[in-house]
């Protein structure tokens, strides 16, 4: 015989209410974690003067980590220990993350935790005890010199082709990063001296030489560049500064137009510039300055390349050598 137990109703209600309170508290704590990540990103921009791409990378890594924590009901940084971090790394491995990606994630977390310690939010950094995976140093992909020459050869005088060729000329002749190319303004050129000012990582300015061939393409491009209020060298269809993605698409499309069979990206042109410069000068420190590398270790990878072309190729064709 069924007996109605009225005392179980408030008991069940209290359990449900406690679950709701716990859920709301966890939601609030997770929002606090996100706010702290946003504050860290602002610190990198304002105090450390980091590049926007670097800041975006940190945020992306940390938000993925926060999502992982949320899935395990971890709502405070102080709850994280080496075991939690090892599980996070293990999940990344299972997701086929490369050794380079794992190293980047751990680096982002270490730097963030140090920031939390400096702001008295955390007492210790549990990421310091996590071993960083060893990386096999891969050589930069480069491009055949004949293919590169074809990409920089003008076939028409159209505005679009002039813009494409000038982008490639500057990426190669100045060894620029995409973000550096995008940031160039009309006022950054000193054509009398043959230099262009570029803003590198950490908003550090450097002056890169521009050769006669590149200056010739630049002058022809400026004649056809739309007149507008923007000071940016390169414009999109709306006559505002182009994006990095646009540059990537332009370089890829130009390579296809001239029959290059490999997938060409802007950083490949920077690698080609470094290769030819080192091949010609045999001066690693000069290449470091040319590329805007903070550490010589970043430049040393080019010493492992198999330089089959003669040094005179650089001396004859590279725009820097003509100055």
Automatic annotation (TrEMBL):
PROSITE patterns: CB (PS51900), TYR_RECOMBINASE (PS51898). Belongs to the 'phage' integrase family. XerC subfamily. Residues 31-117 form the Core-binding (CB) domain. HAMAP family: Recomb_XerC_XerD. GO terms for cellular component: cytoplasm. It comes from the Bacteria. The active site is at residues 177, 201, 267, 270, 293, 302. Its main location: cytoplasm. It holds the Pfam family Phage_int_SAM_1. The keyword Cytoplasm applies. Forms a cyclic heterotetrameric complex composed of two molecules of XerC and two molecules of XerD. It comes from Candidatus Pseudothioglobus singularis PS1. Keywords: Cell cycle, Cell division, Chromosome partition, Cytoplasm, DNA integration, DNA recombination, DNA-binding. GO terms for molecular function: DNA binding; tyrosine-based site-specific recombinase activity. This is Tyrosine recombinase XerC. One of its GO terms (biological process) is chromosome segregation.
């Amino acid at each position: 015989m069924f007996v109605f137990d009225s005392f179980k109703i408030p008991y069940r209600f209290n359990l449900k209410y406690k679950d709701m309170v716990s859920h709301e508290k966890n939601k609030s704590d997770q929002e606090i974690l996100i706010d702290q990540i946003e504050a860290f990103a602002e610190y990198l921009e304002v105090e450390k003067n980091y590049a926007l791409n670097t800041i975006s990378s940190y945020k992306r890594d940390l938000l993925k980590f926060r999502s992982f924590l949320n899935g395990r009901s971890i709502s405070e940084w102080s709850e994280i220990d080496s075991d939690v971090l090892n599980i996070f790394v293990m999940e990344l491995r299972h997701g086929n993350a490369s050794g380079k990606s794992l190293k980047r994630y751990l680096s982002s977390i270490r730097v963030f935790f140090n920031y939390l310690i400096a702001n008295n939010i955390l007492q210790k950094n549990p990421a310091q005890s996590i071993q960083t995976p060893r990386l096999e140093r891969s050589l930069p992909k480069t491009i055949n010199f004949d293919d590169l020459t074809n990409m920089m050869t003008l076939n028409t005088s159209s505005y679009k082709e002039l813009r494409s060729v000038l982008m490639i000329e500057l990426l190669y002749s100045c060894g620029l990063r995409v973000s550096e190319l995008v940031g160039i303004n009309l006022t950054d050129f000193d054509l009398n001296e043959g230099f262009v000012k570029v803003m590198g990582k950490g908003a550090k300015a450097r002056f890169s030489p521009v050769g006669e061939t590149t200056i010739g393409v630049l002058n022809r491009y400026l004649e056809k560049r739309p007149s507008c209020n923007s000071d940016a060298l390169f414009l999109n269809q709306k006559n505002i500064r182009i994006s990095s993605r646009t540059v990537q698409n332009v370089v890829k499309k130009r390579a296809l137009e001239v029959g290059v069979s490999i997938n060409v990206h802007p950083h490949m042109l920077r690698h080609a510039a470094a290769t030819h410069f080192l091949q010609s000068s045999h001066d690693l420190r000069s290449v470091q300055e040319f590329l805007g590398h903070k550490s010589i270790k970043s430049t040393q990878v080019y010493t492992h390349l198999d330089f089959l072309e003669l040094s005179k190729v650089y001396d004859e064709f590279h725009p820097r050598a003509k100055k």
